[in-house]
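> Could you send the Signal recognition particle subunit SRP72 prediction when you get a chance?

Sure thing. Input:
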Amino acid sequence: AAGLWSEVNRCGQNGDFARALKSVNKILQINKDDVTALQCKVVCLIQNGNFKEALGVINTHAKVLTSDVIAFEKAYCEYRLNRIESALKTIQSASQQTDKLKELYGQVLYRLERYDDCLAAYRDLIRNSQDEYEEERKTNLSAVVAAQSTWEKVVPEDLGLREATYELCYNSACALIGQGKLNEAMKKLQKAEELCRQSLSEDSDVTEEDIEAELAIIHGQMAYIMQLQGRTEDALQLYNQIIKLKPTDVGLLAVIANNIITINKDQNVFDSKKKVKLTNAEGVEHKLSKKQLQAIEFNKALLAMYTNQADQCRKLSASLQSQSPEHLLPVLIQAAQLCREKQHAKAVGLLQDFADQHPANAAEIKLTMAQLKIAQGSVTKACMILRSIEELQHKPGMVSALVTMYSHEEDIDSAIEVFTQAIQWYQQYQARTNHGCCVFQPKSPVHLSLIREAANFKLKHGRKKEAISDLEELWKQNPKDVHTLAQLISAYSLVDPEKAKVLSKHLPSSDTMSLKVDVDALENSHGATYVRKKAGKLTGDNQQKEQGQGEVKKKKKKKKGKLPKNYDPKVTPDPERWLPMRERSYYRGRKKGKKKDQVGKGTQGSTTTGSSELDASRTASSPPTSPRPGSGAAVSATSNVIPPRHQKPAGAPATKKKQQQKKKKGAKGGW
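Output:
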């Protein structure tokens, strides 16, 4: 047995755990309950990557291998087998918390996304540990801070970590992305890339392909920043470059594929269907956070909707809703799918049920319902839904939307009621916040803005008396507001002229009004220069008039109209020349072509030489038609004469034939 133990010790020091395992098994054949031998066997199995077998040995010999003896090994096997909850229980049940268990505890908390507890655990480790693993602990600490910033939107505190490694730079960049500081994050990633190249190039065994594989995650984050900045083409190019490298990290590939799908949206669906396969790789669920996995599932459901896979879309969205009943996206996807199937009423009913079950999310759902009603043309019903959202009733955007919609429906009374309710809400809110401290309280800018918009709306729609009360309220708040006073006088002039006269006394006199206008700058401006030039011209004209030329207006030179090339001034123009050819009195229809005249209705080979002689339309008694082009017949000034405007110049048919011959020649030489 002593020889076997020495063999185990020697193999362990050399890292040959496969041979060490054989020696341990021989020892266990002698004494199957040897605690040290069982511990060695578990360690050898872990070093060889046989975590399941190692955990089996621990569970089989649970009486001998108690939690005090082998707690770390058991928790580590459970952690590597992705049994995170079990690993946490094993760590917490250990009687003594060693440094190894604390390290593993931090990793387990990170995987469970308990970032606050994880941060506290790593801080305690860094404070109480002094060994060669300090840099790794700081890297893990920065990763926790980055996760808090990204997933929990917590503003990260400055930990004072010196960003000497590319891992620390990368984590710092991720934290900045979570805060929305994209330009700073890009600079950090560029620094991380530089540090990574420097550190890896020092190792002679590392190839350029290895460096690119290590940089893939940094480049992926760079592409994500480009996507957030709207540089989708650059982002897409970088994403595809990373995919071509075929990195072994399935989590990275899944995230990149998902981001490409979000860029494609409802376009390039074939590419999205190929990319979605990367998100289904084995082990992806253990590499990504819950929010990342959820986002991927949402995009799968949307892709199913875009590819008209209605059943698949309903199945995925229903699964998502069962996992997160309070989440909005699953029900919105289901409603969108129903709308694509022209089932708008069913979609509205589905949204209404969700709003009743989850009042906290009712506002966003009701906004979607209103949009569907507007799409159906039911504007009044949409207004009713919007007015039922109590937390948004007083918001300026909501008031503006409702007033616009009611105005479109010509329901002025309802629009004014919307203004009144919003103004009353601000009055009540002000009374609650001021607690009646004094008699006069200045109104908030939003409140005053609503009163002004209400007054303008009422004036526009002829509600002068109602507008006057609003304008008086505004004037009380700011007696120096000349614009409001002018509006008030204008409104009173139509209702109570005497009151308008009294109020007009409050207007400032023209002498007291000082307009700070730079006259020289105004005259030298582009528009003023143009006006001044015109004014100068007019002044010169006036001087000419005074010199005795009288009030004769300068006549504009008329351009001579263009005449036809064959225009003959001796010929009277055709009075019907402005009418279309078909509407003219002398129009006789199109002349039939020569080829058609030669086609006979008899047997094949028969001729129609006498057809032109028997044609009654060609007799002398028939009225003359328009002269043939190129004919030398004299033109008489009768009503049947076609004017030169519609005559073709002589030699036109010959030219046409030449052109046809040229075309034929060219056709022979073609490919």
